[in-house]
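Late entry, written up from scratch paper. The run itself happened at the end of the previous shift, but nothing got recorded in the book at the time, so transcribing now.
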Amino acid sequence: MTYTFYCMAFAFLLVYLTKAPLAVAMAKEGGSGYDNSNPRDQQARLTGWGRRALAAHQNSFEVTPLFAAAVITAHLFQADAYWSAVWATTFLVSRVLYVLLYLKDIDMVRSLVWMVGIVSCVALFVLAA
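Output as recorded:
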């Protein structure tokens, strides 16, 4: 398995790791604890930090398939391994920072970091061309 495929696996793991802060927020919401019977209803009631944790988690589900497609495309078209690794690593670092910035409510920097992640995906597609 190539380095970029390990990056892809880690990106999928990050999708589920972003659930941890959301679960904490849900457990604290309204003093009623985590509602496993109706988690989406409880998530809809979240505000502030909890609402941002939910948004970060949902965004991870939205962007990770794009990254996976970019990695697979770069691999199939035998893109340069070094640059593929650089862009895959850049994507992962951007995702970790994105989640942290979302939780801290640093919105402008968060948006810039999100763009770095998207550019990383585009760069992987370009390498495949």
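The two ends are 22 Å apart (CA to CA).
(Scratch paper discarded after transcription.)
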